[in-house]
Amino acid sequence: MSQTKGRVTLPSEANFLKETKEILERWGADAIRDSDGTKLDDELKALDAKVYSTYFVTRGHNDFASTHLDECVQMLLMSKHNLAICDTLTIDFLDGFYKEQVVADYRHDPKRYWEVIDRTNNTIVEPDLWTVDQDTDSLTITSAIPFHEYTVSFFVYMIWDPTQMYNYITNNWQDVPHDIPFDIRQPHSAAFAKRCLKDWLQENPDTDVVRFTTFFYHFTLVFNAEAKEKFVDWFGYGATVSIKALAEFEKEYGYALRPEDIVDNGYYNTTFCVPSRRYLDYMDFIQRFVAEKAKELVELVHDSGREAMMFLGDNWIGTEPYGPYFSRIGLDGVVGSVGGGATLRLISDISGVKYTEGRFLPYFFPDTFYEGNDPCIEAIDNWLSARRAIMRSPVDRIGYGGYLSLAYKFPKFIDYIEKVTDEFRMIYANVKGQKPYSGVKVAILNSWGKLRSWQSYMVAHALWYKQTYSYFGILEALSGAAIETVFLSFDDIRENGVPKDVDVIINAGDAGTAFSGGEKWCDPDLVTTLRKWVYEGGGFIGIGEPSAVQHGGRFFQLADILGVDKELGFSLSTDKYYTKALTEHFITSDALTPLSFGESKQSIYALSEDTEIIEYSNHEVHLAANAYGEGRGVYIAGLPYSYENTRLLMRSIYYAAHKERNFHVWQTDNLNCEVHAYPENKKYAILNNSNETQETNVYDGQGKCQSLTLAPCEIIWKEIH
Fold it and tell me: How far apart are CA 125 and CA 141, in angstroms?
């Protein structure tokens, strides 16, 4: 395919033909798409471009949904904690929820399916001790214990799709009806979904690619009484939980799930919680069901001679592209939103499809494209952060979404994206199918492993929070680094040991979370396996509170490897004399500014004089290294994403792997620049990852040095001799 055309998808809308043709030509787009809130008219569909049509399986069909409200998507929600002052307590269980989004389920007997819990003594209140008033959506407990707190776990019907609700509010869609989502597990809904898709395929012969957005179950997104996001978990299975699903689960697995297994103290099994065996069983149950039903729809698309694409967002729950059932669906492609390097790799590393596509930012919505704002700022940042990852593992296509008519009002933006699309095609032509040079192989170790590859530390897709950005920076740094990255779970290590080709393991996260591991570290087999592996030459990097659980007189269970532990107050009577930091170290050789550890961790101390303290301030260790037999451990208090911290992590990995001598192979000495080499096609590229001119020394595959000047955002391609 020509490098001046192709691999780009353009959003368009009715009555915008002339401008669409212009942008198609300038951006070299070979496909057009609609978006939520837009339609393509016949003139647009007649253009020389593939037509992507958004298809909603379980929303956007209100004629059906409104006559089958008993088959709406259900959820289990938990009320606020309510304090009993006397022996009678009345709870407004919908207090704090948006009543245009959810309504209580009274079709099924609350006494049988709901759960009232005394949270103070963690006991279930028997159903004969409470009553429900359907007129006021309230529940009254008799024989309550004064000054105990109580919650109600209750079923609701979701009567407004969360994504449409978000778009409705963002774009002020006053006259647009609320999309009512329905559950494909229900008999009428299952039959309707297949029948409706068959009819739609016949009625839309101009569609080349059916873009499922997505299939059946939305990620958990619940709004509060002010129509603002109350709870959002991009990985949440909350909208899959129906009474029918729980009954079928019990029949298949031989045991029943409690409401508490789903609401989980009000945490709703967020991805940060260490998953229970029961919740993992439920996830697997949903994944198999989704794969089976999605396959039926994909086969209908294929039978009509079209391609089937899945949007990795909105109703994606249960598809799990790194799970064991994804390939069964038979999709042609996956498209997802690109927030940076990690989310680019989340899409591009998916196997089992013919092609992958990234939807880049900004979305062409009025919250970005308004008078006085410069959308190029976000576009440049988005492209530069994703471009690093594309150099390692490119998506096959890129595109944008939203209202093209909005973006068209910003000529500078149109000019910039023209450069982006040309550059993407150039990169793709050089690196697709090539194995990039990797100096070290790293495994990220957490509770989720491969299932959530490139998805750790996310609460909402590509967004960071105060408690997470110190860890998400690890993935963002690795996404475009000359490092091969894989993901392992604690079960993988326990059952199979450490893969022989892994050089370094990284365990990072707050204590008690799925990413640090919590109680998993009380397993002696896990701990001894890792100790033996490091002792015999492996490298272990701990970030934040790695291997953290109070057990056996340690908080960090691998403190002996890391050379540090955290003071919880129990050993304050024991003096800690080791506070002197080294004046220089391989890990910090490139540090030009004060090190940034993000939220960092307090009260970290060195265990002995053998610990190499690299950074010590405020009476605590933030960066350290430690010899452990033939291997090494490295401790970092936090790693928010920056070019400085990317280099810090790279040096830590090489040091832990005992490969310092190889560090200056395909490397630069300017932190704003990177080298990516492709030995098979004898090419390498030097990137300027900033929007400013940079000068750098570049080290080739033999460590030989040359000096270069790179223009803002420039890539220089060279031949390997």
Answer: 8
Q: Which domains does the chain have, with CATH numbers?
A: 8-58+185-228+276-431 (3.20.20.80), 440-662 (3.40.50.880), 667-719 (2.60.40.1180)
User: Minimal CA–CA distance to 150: which of 97, 92, 66?
Assistant: 92
Contact 609, 600 (CB under 8 A): no
Give every CB contact of residue 333 below 8 A, 6+ residues apart in sequence: 209, 307, 308, 309, 310, 353, 354, 355, 356, 357, 396, 397
Name residues of the chain where pLDDT drops below 50. Answer: 1-2
* DSSP secondary structure, 211-267, as one string: EES-SSB--EEEE-TTSSEEEEETT--GGG--HHHHHHHHHHHSSPPPHHHHHGGGT
Average pLDDT value over all residues in the chain: 96
Q: Which residues are tagged catalytic?
A: 314
Q: Which amino acid is at 433?
A: G
Q: Which helix (H) or strand (E) holds 89?
A: strand 88-92
Q: For residue 213, which phi and psi values (nearest 5 degrees)?
A: -125, 75
CA–centroid distance for 627 within its chain = 34
- Of the candidates 34, 2, 396, 38, the one whose C-alpha atom is nearest the C-alpha of residue 206 is 34
Residue 448: burial class (beta carbons within 10 Å; 0-12, 13-18, 19+): buried
Residue 423 is inside which H or E element, if any?
helix 411-431
Cite the beta strand spans of 426-499 per DSSP E: 440-446, 483-489
Picking from 13, 3, 6, 39, the residue whose alpha carbon sits closest to that of residue 405 is: 13
> Rounded to the nearest 10 degrees, what angle do helices 375-392 and 341-348 cross at?
50
Q: Residue 173 CB: number of other CB atoms within 10 A?
A: 15
Question: Which strand ranges, in their side-by-side order, compose the sheet holding 705-710?
Answer: 667-668, 694-699, 705-710
pLDDT digits (tens, 9 = 90+) for 388-418: 999 999 999 999 999 999 999 999 999 999 9
DSSP readout, 668-705? ESSTTEEEEEETTTTEEEEEE-SSS-EEEEEE-TT--E
Rounded Cα–Cα distance for residues 670 and 591 (Å): 11
What count of other Cβ atoms lies within 10 Å of the Cβ of residue 715?
18
The whole-angstrom separation of Cα 37 and Cα 165 is: 12
- CA distances 666 to 75, 684, 720, Å, are 52, 9, 11
The tokens for 477 are 């740094």
Output DSSP code: residue 444.
Answer: E
Return the CA Rg of the chain.
27
**Degrees (nearest 5) of the Cα angle 238, 243, 247?**
115
- pLDDT, one tens digit per residue, over 198-238 is 999 999 999 999 999 989 999 999 999 999 999 999 999 99
- The pair of three-digit structure tokens given for residue 287, joined into one six-digit string: 């994944």
Longest distance between any two alpha carbons in the chain, whole Å: 84
